[in-house]
Specification:
19 strands, 26 helices, globular, five-stranded parallel beta sheet, Rossmann fold, 15% strand, alpha/beta, 4 domains, seven-stranded mixed beta sheet
Length: 626
């Protein structure tokens, strides 16, 4: 490990505030080196943290944390904050079970003012804190740190609109690095980028006044200078609207400052000290570089948004039979289905790489729409396209679909529009933890009229069910887990299966395991020693009532298994069918209990809920014995 003498002396921010301003660049350098080495070993979010080092140092130097509140948007950039707030010696546990969370978490530290993980919440949360402090009269300050990608979301502007109509002492820092996870899209990032040259006219006037006495004494110099001036004027006139960035935020009631170099820690300290003393809503525009200090991350911030282990950054030979992920299965199917049907259009809310849409964008650029971090808009936009005769496919993570629930109900389902939702990361997601776990979609989707919900049990089933739901003239969802499945061969065609019909994967006696999606594989393994029947239900809605009734009539007890919350999930649907038909049978519901899940190894977490083959078998044996 590198020598970091100043950083080693900083247990908490109060020690940082004992240093002189001249020492802060060294603190930032040491912090960046420590970050490179710690994340290089544990993995985690990377480029965004490197870009926020100086800003984090300056904030904790100027603000009296934890009394003053720092609210980090999303939290991808919070590792330097964790290092400076008493957690440096635990960074080797980052994102591991029982270790540090990958995002700010209130129960982890008093310095984590607000738990985050989803985008664009910081301004609203910090505004609430600022208003609470004003009512209490305690003089504390609240700061929201939000990226230019997160600023594109509607919730951020809703909070700006509300904050600007108050007189609270709130600072919003716009960390502008022209990135979210992928490069930003839309009009706002272009608008912000133009603000970097907003003072061009002022700079030109100053230079001209200071140099005129020298230039008029040099032969030909004035002619050259005039050409330079004309060129600068051309650039400046093209960017004239950049001056409106100030007007944009001031029209929201904020006093705008910037842009400021986000890697000049001394300058940041000076500016922040001034802003902390000001009254009312303030906005500071900071320019940073994602991945700053690590050339590979600077040159490819998308690739280095998150890393597993920097020691493995050199490509390793892959086995010839490497299993494709569900995300890759979806991406391949999407391209094939688009080639067969010109009505298909693909939509993503800023998750091109994560949702497997890179190849689709390359092959069908005119049919690909990245709407930015705007899940609500993505869904309503898809509804409008469906009204126009197209067949939209919305690629979205389960946890992010929650953000568009009203639009899903009101704009899609109630109008019975044929929009397919490819819902990735369903179930436990591992290191990203509870903010990213997809554990509620079956419960919140099942109650919506007109919805078709499919849960594939393996890779080939994923392709079959995508094709089936795409051909269904109704709102539909195919939900699949993160990573790979059991490695089943995948067909190349666009075949479909009967809608709402499950199938028996294994015949046994006495106990019937009714499994959904990712739980079919562990159920089959458990059934081998239990000699149980296993049904792959394929669909959660419409559910195969005939199959459930038949299994109930021919078995002594029923076990349901799903990688979803037990409350209101697929198991509940089975109970409803049994109640409807007046069937009384012992039923064990296996799923995720009514708790907030932890971050860490996915198999460890699943085992804790009896959702691995071994723990499932043990739980069923114990239940039957009781």
């Amino acid at each position: 490990m590198s020598q970091t003498p100043l950083l080693d002396s900083i247990d908490y921010p109060d020690k940082l505030r004992c240093l002189s301003k001249k020492q802060l660049p060294q603190v930032a350098d040491e912090l960046r080196r420590f970050l490179l080495e710690s994340v290089g070993k544990t993995g985690g979010h990377f480029a965004s943290n490197l870009g926020a080092v100086e800003l984090t140092v300056a904030l904790h130097y100027v603000y009296d944390t934890p009394d003053d509140k720092l609210v980090w948007d999303v939290g991808h950039q919070s590792y330097p904050h964790k290092i400076l707030t008493g957690r440096r010696n635990r960074m080797d546990t980052m994102r591991q079970y029982g270790g540090l969370a990958g995002f700010p978490k209130r129960s982890e530290s008093e310095y984590d003012a607000f738990g985050v993980g989803h985008s664009s919440t910081s301004i609203g949360a910090a505004l609430g804190m600022a208003l609470a402090d004003k009512k209490l009269g305690n003089g504390r300050r609240s700061v929201a740190i939000i990226g230019d990608g997160a600023m594109t979301a509607g919730q951020a502007f809703e909070a700006l609109n509300c904050a600007g109509d108050t007189d609270v002492d709130l600072l919003v820092i716009l960390n502008d690095n022209e990135m979210s996870i992928s490069p930003n899209v839309g009009a706002l990032p272009k608008y912000l980028a133009s603000n970097v040259v907003r003072d061009m006219h002022g700079v030109l006037s100053t230079l001209k006044a200071q140099s005129s006495k020298v230039l008029d004494k040099l032969p030909g110099a004035m002619e050259i200078a005039q050409k330079v001036e004309n060129k600068i004027k051309t650039i400046a006139s093209e960017a004239e609207h950049a001056k409106q960035s100030l007007t944009l935020f001031e029209n929201f009631g904020f006093r705008y400052t910037g842009p400021v170099d986000g890697h000049d820690v001394g300058k940041l300290v000076d500016v922040l000290k001034d802003l902390r003393s000001r009254k009312g809503p303030q906005l500071l525009h900071v320019i940073t570089k994602k991945g700053n200090g690590y050339k590979l991350a600077e040159n490819d911030p998308v690739k280095y948004h998150a890393v597993a282990n920097l020691a493995k950054e050199t490509p390793q030979p892959q086995p010839n039979a490497a299993k494709p992920t569900y995300t890759q299965i979806f991406g391949k199917w999407l391209c094939d289905q688009a080639a067969a049907d010109s009505r298909l259009l693909a939509i993503t809310p800023a998750m091109r790489e994560g949702s497997g849409l890179v190849a689709f964008e390359q092959q069908f650029p005119d049919r690909y729409f990245d709407v930015g971090i705007a899940e609500q808009h993505a869904v309503t936009f898809a509804g409008g396209l469906a009204c126009g005769g197209f067949k939209p496919v919305v690629a979205i993570y389960s946890t992010f679909l929650q953000r568009a629930y009203d639009q899903l109900v009101h704009d899609i389902a109630l109008q019975n529009l044929p929009v397919l939702f490819a819902v990735d990361r369903a179930g436990i997601v591992g290191a990203d933890g509870p903010t990213h776990a997809g554990l509620y979609d079956l419960s919140f989707l099942r109650c919506i009229p007109n919805m078709v919900i499919a849960a594939p049990s393996d890779e080939n089933e994923c392709r079959l069910l995508l094709s089936t739901c795409y051909q269904t003239d109704a709102p539909s969802v195919v939900r699949y887990p993160r990573g790979s499945g059991c490695g089943s061969p995948v067909s190349d065609g666009l075949a479909t299966v009967p809608l709402g019909k499950g199938l028996i994967r294994r015949n046994g006696e006495k106990t019937a395991l009714i499994a959904f999606g990712s739980m079919v594989t562990p159920a089959l393994k458990a059934a081998e020693t239990l000699n149980a029947t296993v049904a792959d239900m394929r669909f959660v809605k419409p559910i195969d009532e005939d199959l459930i009734v038949r299994l109930a009539q021919t078995h002594d007890c029923i076990v349901t298994a799903e990688e979803n919350a037990v409350q209101g999930g697929a198991g509940s649907a089975v109970l409803e069918v049994l109640a409807k038909h007046g069937i009384r049978k012992p039923v064990l519901l296996l799923g995720v209990d009514d708790v907030v899940t932890e971050h860490g190894d996915a198999q460890t977490i699943l085992a804790g809920f009896d959702l691995t083959a071994e723990t499932m078998e043990q739980r069923i044996r114990s239940w039957c014995a009781e």
